[in-house]
Specification:
The protein is of the alpha/beta class and about 600 residues long. Among the domains are: about 200 residues, no CATH class; about 120 residues, no CATH class; about 80 residues, P-loop containing nucleotide triphosphate hydrolases (Rossmann fold, 3-Layer(aba) Sandwich), CATH 3.40.50. Helix content is about 65%, strand content about 10%. It has 18 helices and ten strands. The strands form two sheets. It has a six-stranded mixed β-sheet with strand order 6-7-8-3-9-10, with helices on both faces. A four-stranded antiparallel β-sheet has the order 2-1-4-5, with helices on one face. The longest helix has about 55 residues. About 25% of the residues are buried.
Length: about 600
């Protein structure tokens, strides 16, 4: 049943209606951000199509005029008009390609990318855990505007091929309806049989793919240096050679299996696409010209020109229909990304000042976890204003996962998180997070100035006192004095050769300064000193406690240099809280926390 659904979905994706809807979806960006692009492209399409028709008409006129003895001035007049049309069109197209299109592509790029960046900001954190969605997301950001421009250009060519084909077919029918009908039937049948050949080749390549991969692997084994020592021991080399011979035989058999169909279809396509238009129709026209005095030299010449041009344009229509199918498959990815609606949401925007945070029976499993195992199970705790709380435990115990839930990067699978007694799922995530400042263990320093990095956005002179105080609180003030442009110093060399690179510990201090630059009421420090040595770690933790004296702070660590200062410690193990209390209380319990602390205590005692 599932297989049938997949087949039906694939069939729908390739239907004419579905492809058309996808193309229209993408072209709406062009209509929205660069409406003139549509009219300029249409002008090029019609102008190019008109030129193809004009060539056929002019050849007929020219040879008929010569045969009828039309005076030179008249022929020259019409010749100059044709040349003038061609020059005018080429000048227009040169302007379109060299001046208009580069500028309009930038307009498209800015409009589409800003829209995609806005959508990216709305994505739930779980989207980044879904490899398929994430790959589509990256593709959409990288290629959406280029794909829109490419579709517009393809439409231009497609339209001029359709217009010129239709008009030339009518002209050809007026000169010789037998040629017009024969050519239309030949091209139509050629398109049908070419599609059949493509399907046969697809099936053949599908069977050949694992065979080819195996042959490629054996080939790599024999020429890559990594395998050479092992090849000279035991009998693996002989075994692989025999396997290569057997697999080659399987490959030959697979090719032979499809050879008959491929040959038959190729012969039919050759007959329809090459023999009939290039030999049969030309021969027919030559014979008719010789025996039919009613066929003028102009009609004869124009018929041959129209035959080759019509065959070429109709074939190209098929090629561009195939390209539109390809575009449609890619547009599916963009539509999936753009159509995503966040599940982490809430309507209440008036979030009050922080007083308490309560967790009740909370359990959580990551949406795209391979084993479906719960990262947290049955968590209960309460945090009050002004408290200093520590979450401790070894890596993978669930500490950081709980912080992600407290900040609503995810929502709990079971249980509740209450902010001042109200379920946090009722709050607007953006408004709720304005009350929480966090230093994540995988912090980032951006290619921006020190001030912009600390403020987490735009920096003005009015922000200088807050930024300096925050950097001092993060023990970065000594380094700041050494920077060439102080707060205005560019960090990283991504966009500036004068940019400054920071060590891991210095970069972590910039991240810590961010939570002190704004009036957050609840501060989360997720491994805030992991990049620091024990002495620097002790000093910065003391500074954090002093600076956040009136605020609520949650420390997360598997290093226990700060736990003695915490009002309450929660010991995590395997996704559960196994112990809770002050440092002294947990040491008296002589459980997991005490064991972990004793292992680390000597190192910190020596360092301090």
């Amino acid at each position: 049943m599932k297989q049938d659904n997949v087949k039906q979905e694939k069939k729908e994706r390739h239907s004419f209606g579905h492809v058309s809807r996808n193309l229209y979806f993408m072209l709406r960006y062009s209509f929205k951000y660069a409406p003139s692009y549509t009219f300029v492209t249409l002008g090029e399409a019609l102008g190019r199509g008109g030129w193809h028709v004009l060539q056929v008409l002019f050849i007929k006129y020219l040879f008929d005029a010569i045969e009828a003895g039309v005076e030179f001035k008249t022929v020259l007049f019409w010749s100059l008009l044709v040349v003038g049309y061609n020059i005018s069109f080429e000048l227009f197209n040169k302007w379109r390609l060299e001046v208009y299109r580069p500028r309009i592509r930038l307009v498209l790029h800015e409009g589409i990318q800003n829209e995609l960046y806005k959508q990216a900001r709305e994505l739930d954190q779980c989207c980044y855990d879904d490899p398929e969605f994430y790959n589509d997301f990256i593709w959409a950001i990288r290629e959406a505007d280029n794909r829109t421009g490419e579709i517009m250009e393809n439409f231009s060519i497609f339209i001029n091929r359709v217009v010129s084909s239709a008009v030339i077919l009518v002209l050809l029918a007026t000169m010789d309806w037998i040629v017009a009908v024969t050519l239309a039937v030949a091209v139509g049948l050629g398109f049908v049989f070419r599609n059949k050949l493509n399907k046969v080749n697809y099936k053949k390549n599908e069977e050949l793919n694992p065979i080819t991969r195996k042959l490629s692997y054996i080939g790599r084994v024999f020429y890559l240096p990594d395998h050479q020592k092992e090849l000279r021991q035991g009998g693996i080399a002989e075994h692989l050679q025999e396997e290569y011979q057997r697999t080659t035989g399987t490959r030959v058999a697979c090719i032979e299996k499809y050879a008959g169909k491929v040959l038959a279809l190729s012969l039919i396509i050759g007959f329809l696409s090459d023999l009939i238009p290039h030999t049969g129709i030309v021969a027919y026209l030559v014979i008719r010209f010789l025996v039919d005095p009613g066929l003028s030299l102009g009609s004869f010449s124009a018929s041959i020109t129209a035959t080759f041009k019509l065959f070429w344009t109709i074939n190209d229509i098929g090629n561009y229909l195939t390209k539109f199918h390809e575009h449609s498959l890619y547009i599916e990815k963009v539509r999936k990304f753009v159509g995503y609606r966040p599940t982490i949401k809430g309507d209440v925007t008036g979030v009050p000042a922080f007083d308490t945070l309560s967790v009740r029976g909370l359990s959580f499993a990551y949406p795209f976890s391979k084993d479906g195992k719960e990262a947290l199970s049955g968590i209960d705790l309460e945090i009050r204003r002004g408290e200093k709380i520590a979450f401790v435990g070894y890596n993978g115990a669930g500490k950081t996962t709980l912080i992600k839930l407290l900040m609503r990067l995810y929502d709990a699978t079971e249980g509740k998180i209450l902010y001042n007694g109200q379920d946090i799922t009722a709050f607007s995530p953006a408004e709720y997070r304005k009350h929480i400042g966090a230093v994540f263990q995988d912090y980032t320093v951006f290619a921006a100035t020190v001030g912009e990095n600390v403020m987490g956005g735009e920096y003005t002179e009015a922000d200088e006192p807050a930024v300096r105080a925050a950097l001092t609180a993060a023990a970065f003030d000594d380094k700041l004095e050494k920077l060439p442009n102080g707060i205005q110093t560019q960090l990283t060399t991504e966009f500036s050769k004068e940019g400054v690179g920071l060590s891991g510990g210095e970069a972590q201090k910039i991240a810590i300064a961010r939570v002190f630059a704004r009036p957050y009421e609840l501060i989360v420090m997720d491994e805030p000193s992991s990049a620091l040595d024990p002495i620097a770690e002790y000093k910065i933790n003391q500074s954090i406690i002093r600076q956040a004296e009136s605020k609520t702070v949650i420390f997360i660590s598997h290093r226990l240099s700060t736990t003695r200062m915490a009002d309450r410690i929660y010991m995590f193990d395997n996704g559960k809280i196994v112990e809770c209390g002050s440092h002294d209380e947990l040491m008296r319990q002589n459980g997991k926390y005490a064991e972990m602390y004793r292992v680390q205590a000597e190192k910190y005692r020596d360092a301090v």
